[in-house]
Amino acid sequence: WAVQLNKLKLFGLIEMAVFLLILLIGYYYVWRKGAFEWE
After folding, report:
1. How far apart are CA 32 and CA 34, in angstroms?
2. Alpha-carbon distance 10 to 21, whole Å?
3. pLDDT-above-70 percentage for the chain
């Protein structure tokens, strides 16, 4: 991403932000379900 950001401009930045937001939502969901609690 860092290499291609100069070519992608604003569209690339928005797309990267959406992708990271989806990952964070998934991480939060799994964390709330307790999947990271190992025994």
Report:
1. 5
2. 16
3. 95
Q: Show Cβ contacts of residue 12 under 8 Å, excluding neighbours closer than 6 positions.
A: 1, 4, 5
Sign of CA dihedral 13, 16, 22, 24: negative
pLDDT in tens, 20-34: 999 999 999 999 999
Give the pTM: 0.70
For residue 2, the number of C-alpha atoms closer than 13 Å in the C-beta half-sphere is 0
DSSP state of 36: T
d(C-alpha 8, C-alpha 26), whole Å: 26
